[in-house]
Write a structure and sequence with these properties.
The complex is a heterodimer. By secondary structure, chain A is an alpha+beta fold. Chain A has 2 helices and 7 strands. Chain A is globular and about 45 Å long. Chain B is an alpha/beta fold. In chain B, strands 3-2-1-4-5 form a 5-stranded mixed sheet, sandwiched between helices. The chains are: A alpha+beta, B alpha/beta. At the A-B interface, strand 1, strand 2, strand 4, strand 6 and strand 7 of A face helix 2, helix 6, strand 6 and helix 7 of B. Strand 4 of chain A pairs parallel with strand 6 of chain B.
Amino acid sequence: MADNFKFDLVSPERLVMSEPATQVVVPGTEGQFTVMAGHAPVMTTLRPGVLDATLGSGKRERIFVRGGFADVNAAGLTVLAEQAIPLAELEAETINGLIQEAEAEIAAAKDETERADATLKRDQLRDVAAEAGRPAGGSTH
Amino acid sequence: MPSLKELRGRIASVKATRKITKAMQMVAASKLRRAQARAEAARPYAERMNAVLVGLSQAVQGQDGAPKLLVGNGQDKTHLLVVCTAERGLAGAFNSAIARAARDHANRLLREGKDVKFLCVGRKGFDILRRLFPNRILDRIDLRSVRQVGFTEAEMISKRVLALYDEGAFDVATLHFSTFKSVISQIPTAKQLIPAEIAGEVAATGSAAAYEYEPDEETILRDLLPRNISVQILRALLENNAGFYGAQMNAMDNATRNAGDMMNRYTLEYNRSRQAQITKELIEIISGAEAV
């Protein structure tokens, strides 16, 4: 059994979660990475994606996060996300709305970089939508 | 001296007013509790954001090409005041205190020969500032239709501010709002948004040098600074909201008490003149009987 570390998930409107965790998979901008106790200090921005936390109690939480950053230091992991919704509560409307927003951004993009950024964002959101369709652990309804 | 009938009418109307102010006070009290909880719930995010920014800004300090949002565009000519007030009144001096602080700030800048522009969030501030600085208001943002201010609104405002900044409409932005200190005390506060005013000590845990940044510091900072503005605005909106209900509760409490006093005075006057009339009638009857 791995050691526990402090895991805080904060959104602008409230503290979503503050619990010891053994392992958290964070969707970083430059790739997904797993944080365990004693991880080297890292700071990274987030891409829209699913954060997968294994809590100290052994419970697994899958949470959709969007926009923000993760900060790993000696004290633990702090994720600041603009939006944090447990995957189970994520409604199709919300995610589809975000995908449409990203598509509007693609249409409004002024240059190649902007278009590429927006396209990437849309694809990431689509991945989340696909993920949300499947319940945690791969079991069926 | 008003007639008895007139007095009865006045008492009834003061009584009705008291009922209304009492109800408003109770509504404000219950909304205050919610608003206060929301303002407090928003604090951890703002605090951590600030802690991270402190670390990052020191890491890039003194480097060339530091983001403009952090160091400014090197000018100090045009100031934008973002004035956040409530949408409704009946809250004592709450709105006018914020507007007054903004007005003083603007006058001070004008005396120094700087240009001042306003962005009004909330109807009340706009109403007051429109009269004082009719040509300096760039835009107003109305949140009346929003039931509960949240991050979406804060983000919308911050995008507006950033768009104006990109157009070069101003050099320095300051946010005016009211800090919620307690139910009876709201302090009008000014906070500089652009260039970002980052204060605080670097967190003791792990020095900035030991960090690995992914992507590099500057990219993160560029991503973080606009977010920081949204967070600051959100904090201002939530603090304002809590402060507004606190101020309204107080104002309505005073109004209820005043109405009670006024009712007592009118009732006393009413009883006196009723007595006087009875006495007068008695005298008339007695003197009439004596005359027979």
